[in-house]
Amino acid sequence: MATTLSAPKLTAFSSSQTLQTLCKRIPISLYPQSPSSPFSVSTARISLLARRASLSHRHRFAARAESDNGAEPRRYDFDLFTIGAGSGGVRASRFAANLGASVAICELPFATISSETSGGVGGTCVLRGCVPKKLLVFASKYSHEFEESHGFGWKYEAEPKHDWSILMANKNAELQRLTGIYKNILKNAGVTLIEGRGKIVDPHTVDVDGKLYSARHILIAVGGRPFIPEIPGSEYAIDSDKALDLPSKPEKIAIIGGGYIALEFAGIFNGLTTDVHVFIRQKKVLRGFDEEVRDFVAEQMSLRGIEFHTEESPQAILKSADGSLTLKTTKGAVEGFSHVMFATGRKPNTKNLGLEEVGVKMTKNGAIEVDEYSHTSVPSIWAVGDVTDRVNLTPVALMEGMALAKTLFANEPTKPDYRAIPSAVFSQPPIGQVGLTEEQAIKEYGDVDIYTENFRPLKATLSGLPDRIFMKIIACAKTNKVLGLHMCGEDSAEIVQGFAVAVKAGLTKADFDMTVGIHPTSAEELVTMRTPKRKIRNGSPPEGKDSEVKAAAGV
Amino acid sequence: MLQTEEIIRLNGIYKRLLSNAGVKLYEGEGKIVGPNEVEVTQLDGTKIFYSAKHILIATGSRAQRPPIPGKELAITSDEALSLDELPKRAVVLGGGYIAVEFASIWRGMGSTVDLCFRKELPLRGFDDEMRAAVARNLEGRGINLHPRTNLKALVKTEEGMKVLTDHGEEIIADVVLFATGRIPNTKRLNLEAVGVELDKIGAVKVDEYSRTNVPSIWAIGDVTNRMNLTPVALMEGTYFAKTVFGGEPCKPDYSNIPCAVFCIPPLSVVGLNEEQAIEKAKGDVLVFTSTFNPMKNTISGRQEKTIMKLVVDAETDKVLGASMCGPDGPEIMQGIAVALKCGATKAQFDSTVGIHPSAAEEFVTMRSVTRRVSKPKTNL
């Protein structure tokens, strides 16, 4: 019976090329023992596919075990097909290949600006995010350093001037180099890289610009893109992609948004002597961050000349005859901008991927819904990174990608661990944080001890500039465990990383205190905070000034 | 000028710290005249005697000058920090942290710098791989290194100072800095008369509680030549106060004390270096390294690699030591030191998500072992 079924004349289903391909690969061992009439063959195939689907759902972790069966022929072109060669996609693909899987990955052709048809190997982080942003932060920091240098004895004829075109050229050359490195990483891991736009055709098939590829598993790692809300004149606005690749430096810029992207660009352009105005909907920047950090960073940024327009939302952008832009807001109008930039959020790239048709469930804002193992609602389809809108950070996408590779191909079901993930904002001054904010800690733990320091770093004593550093450690009053650590000031990101290991490991404030300081550094302040600034008991501080601050913060 | 102002300002702050704590400050030279008696010679020459239940010696150390002909022409770090002029050409003798820091400082300001040291590499006692990185970086920044070199003589000439090395080289310099070590300040304390024991180099001998052989006399800091770092002196001082006046005898813990050398780029370490780990570990030692050109350099064009290293006990997975030579090393190492001090494992490091982009994240993403060093099997 089985042999007859293996080379039948397909009638109703012969038109489907995909189904034919699938059918050729159906293992003999899974064939049900049914009569050989054409009708029952078709039924057998339908029920076979249904059984296969339910099998893979129930035995998702046996996926690898199946392929270990030496008697089985290969059924798919690849064990894993990844759509999107960014942080999550490359990590998952690479490690899957290292674990013995056959992997393919597709990615749109390279461009500095992302779109429906352009992207590039390396993804947002490498091409339009972390990397170029950090390079521009480096570039923009020099003006502050030149200012600092006078107090240290440096004199020069004229203040150094900045050439934007040199920065752009060098930045772009670096991106090219990095995208090449990522391509090599994939090549060296034995991952097949396909250039083109991937679209899901069915649970095991991806179409890349017309060519079909079948895979046991499909991974969606297409990331997200900046989102510009529709207001009159929004066509004159730029997003972060464009801001990283402008033809010339802005003279006066309106940045709309209060999140990390808005603040980072505010710092970049301010450092390059642009006149910077930041418009935010809220009372304060960086919603979700520790309240004291939100206040501190805004104050430090204002001292550098950045103007914040709080509780002011854009209504329209008008272009005048001389080409300058006027921003009409809920509070009035500000004119003379050379650029208006929206940094109001990013949306997952889930349009035109075939997701709705294949049945992949999505959230209200278009992110792909996944479980703790990055599994979508379709058994053979998985998703990691920004497209799932969990914690949109490169190292988290890397963690999700690695965990998935282990789950699928190392027979070790692995859930990414989202506890105590440190992160940084590369504003100027920058922010580093790990664990809970004070507000979150009070909510979750009730009784907490708050340690803070607000000091002038050593460098500022000679530079004469108003730079300060703010540090905060939140400890559980009962167990002394460090629940959160926050810092705003020079070198925050570098400093917080090591402390994140300590926080993740559940260390206590006493552990911190018994560590000898490295002197002289700023970091040593974090191991020498002896007395709590305030003790919160039963969710409220002792009566006094602090309680007013807390009340204002809505705690 | 600004630096002097700052030093004066800090001096004032320290005076206030003492007075706010109710400590009486006497200006003058102190000398021990009995187990419970101190003689202070004031600035006008008059002597006052004070009796005390306990006497604490914390006189620190001073730079020493090697017995080289012409040594009076050279300066030490004290003078180096207050020079009237930046030397155009400087020769630095020494291989320790003070020598490399000043070499870097002067080179950074544009001086021509020659660094002479006795060993093959500077910074003896530090991890060998890190020492090599420091040497490479110093050279990369244009400092002329003279390894396995001592100075024979300094001679004053019209063109400046002629410095003769024991390799027969002659270097003309405006400033010669002796940075060959510091010795404890115990000469004028009258310690021998009181019976306080000193070691070979004149450091005060103390037990784990910082007590000398005279029960009422204690000593902390550089004068005891244990670990000559400010935070360690602070720790010793704190524990002394707790032991003697807090009713809780406690010993300072010298394990896993992080420190930094502020050459450019800086070096920072905590725990055991590779060589020490191999010696002390019961079994194999795993070495993880990450060497890379930092992001900033890819645009600036500077060829200067950062190197970061973790040394792990293969059996227990405990991180025995961490080191880094590269920009921001000291700031990065502080948090790593907390984890290490508390016995964190490599797995705990690896389970910590990185902060991106940073140099520090390399410490939590070292996936592959660079080398595994097995303990050589000894036949009894």
UniProtKB/TrEMBL annotation, chain A:
Keywords: Disulfide bond, FAD, Flavoprotein, NAD, NADP, Nucleotide-binding, Oxidoreductase, Redox-active center. NAD(+) binds at residues 257-264, 345. InterPro entries: FAD/NAD-bd_sf (IPR036188), FAD/NAD-binding_dom (IPR023753), FAD/NAD-linked_Rdtase_dimer_sf (IPR016156), GSHR (IPR006324), GSHR/TRXR-like (IPR046952), Pyr_nuc-diS_OxRdtase (IPR001100), Pyr_nucl-diS_OxRdtase_dimer (IPR004099), Pyr_OxRdtase_I_AS (IPR012999). It catalyses: 2 glutathione + NADP(+) = glutathione disulfide + NADPH + H(+). Residues 533-555 are annotated as: Disordered. Pfam families: Pyr_redox_2, Pyr_redox_dim. Residues 79-401 form the FAD/NAD(P)-binding domain. Binds 1 FAD per subunit. The active site is at residue 519. NCBIfam families: gluta_reduc_2, PRK06116.1. Belongs to the class-I pyridine nucleotide-disulfide oxidoreductase family. This is Glutathione reductase. It comes from Actinidia rufa.
Automatic annotation (TrEMBL), chain B:
Its EC number is 1.8.1.7. InterPro entries: FAD/NAD-bd_sf, FAD/NAD-binding_dom, FAD/NAD-linked_Rdtase_dimer_sf, GSHR/TRXR-like, Pyr_nucl-diS_OxRdtase_dimer. The keyword Flavoprotein applies. It comes from the Eukaryota. One of its GO terms (molecular function) is glutathione-disulfide reductase (NADPH) activity. GO terms for cellular component: cytosol; mitochondrion. It catalyses: 2 glutathione + NADP(+) = glutathione disulfide + NADPH + H(+). Residues 7-237 form the FAD/NAD(P)-binding domain. Residues 257-366 form the Pyridine nucleotide-disulphide oxidoreductase dimerisation domain. Its cofactor is FAD. It holds the Pfam family Pyr_redox_dim. Keywords: Disulfide bond, FAD, Flavoprotein, NADP, Oxidoreductase, Redox-active center. GO terms for biological process: cell redox homeostasis; cellular response to oxidative stress; glutathione metabolic process. Homodimer. Belongs to the class-I pyridine nucleotide-disulfide oxidoreductase family. This is glutathione-disulfide reductase. It comes from Actinidia rufa. The lineage of its organism: Eukaryota, Viridiplantae, Streptophyta, Embryophyta, Tracheophyta.
